[in-house]
Specification:
Blueprint lengths: L10 E6 L3 H7 L8 E5 L9 E7 L7 E11 L10 E6 L3 H13 L14
Parallel strand pairs: 1-3
Antiparallel strand pairs: 2-5, 3-4, 4-5
Amino acid sequence: MAEAPTNLPGKMLNLTIPDKPELYRSYMAFLQHGGLFAPTTDTFQMGEEVLLAVNLPEFNEAKYLRTKVVWINTAATSTGQPQGIGLAFGKDEDSIAVKQSIEDILPGLLLSERTTYTL
């Protein structure tokens, strides 16, 4: 099991993305370093630092990433977007590696016009 980083932020969120379609809907490629939407009913503030423990398709264990809240959807929408938060990856080595892994898992889909949880 991967070890969680030290000097942790105040909040932690676990996110398991089981397959490529869900990863496509969750990935926020429009952010500078990438990010993920995490469905949650917990309360967060814009800019808040969150430790994200993420399990992605084709990963054998959770990856721990320091992220920041950049999107808040306070309630489920009529268009199918769930309540939750968008978490921006940082520019640290672990975040860059996860961003690259996601983009390797989703080749070609990043240019799709299909809706996601954020746009």
